[in-house]
Amino acid sequence: MISKKLSWIFLLFLIFSSSCERENLIIPKPRLYPKVNFPSKEYQDFQKDYCSFGFRFPNYAEIKKDDYFFEDKPYHPCWFDIEIPSLNGKLHCSYYPVGKRKDLDNLVNDAYKLAGKHNVKAEYYEEQVIRLPNKVNGVLFEIEGDVATPLQFFLSDSTNHFFRASLYFNDKVNSDSIAPIYDFVKADIDTLIHSFYWK
Q1: Main-chain phi, psi angles of 66, to 5 degrees
Q2: FRET pair for 89, CA 20 to 30 Å: which of 13, 119, 168, 176?
Q3: How much is the pLDDT for 43?
Q4: Does pTM surpass 0.70?
């Protein structure tokens, strides 16, 4: 009787020990992000007859003029995207001629409101004042976290012109995975801002 119990115990032990072999254990692997091959940094001039300004932008980017804003025509012919196909992103750019001080104030307030909408998901928010000697002034908004647009800015001469831009990536936003790409593109946006001039 005792030997029969021992044989059952031994049999159960064998079954449990064989089911717990190391080969059957599933261990989750850490999340990895794909390697990004960054393009070389060379710049070209943006000079379009439908815009009242110029700047330098990277040669790996393409200018795509906006023909439609939702179902309507854009407010001004100088609305375009600077598309970055190799990095799956774009800088959406819009221009408004300014007639009255009230119009400029409304545009500036709208820029602050649009940047402020991301504060709900933002981990960090910073505003940097832009003042260049050639009457190019504005504010750059950096928004860290899982937000739709991590960088926005506007530029104006305070009397006649207002230019606004927002950076978007065409993937689900994950600030950790997008960080190296963001840093790479931000350097090109800094070049764009510091080479910007009014015609």
Answers
A1: -80, 120
A2: 119
A3: 97
A4: yes
d(CA 93, CA 86): 19
Nearest to 138 by CA among 123, 156, 113: 156
Please, which pLDDT band fits residue 28 given cuts at 50, 70 and 90? low
Q: Which residues are within 8 A (CB) of 147 and not within 5 positions of it... i.e. 6 or more apart?
A: 118, 121, 122, 173, 175
Q: What is the signed CA dihedral for 80, 85, 90, 94, rounded to 10 degrees?
A: 0
**163 three-state secondary structure:** strand
Whether the CB-CB separation of 58 and 43 falls below 8 Å is answered with: yes
Rounded average pLDDT over 94-112: 93
> From the CB of residue 22, how many other CB atoms can be counted at a distance below 10 Å?
6
The number of beta carbons lying within 10 Å of the beta carbon of residue 167 is 21
Query: Worst-scoring range by mean pLDDT, 9-13, 21-25, 99-103, 124-128?
Result: 21-25
Task: For each of the domains in the chain, give its residue range(s) and CATH number, in order of start.
Answer: 43-198 (3.40.1000)
The count of C-alpha atoms lying within 13 angstroms of the C-alpha of 141, restricted to the half-sphere facing its C-beta, is: 24
pLDDT digits (tens, 9 = 90+) for 44-82: 999 999 999 999 999 999 999 977 655 666 678 899 999
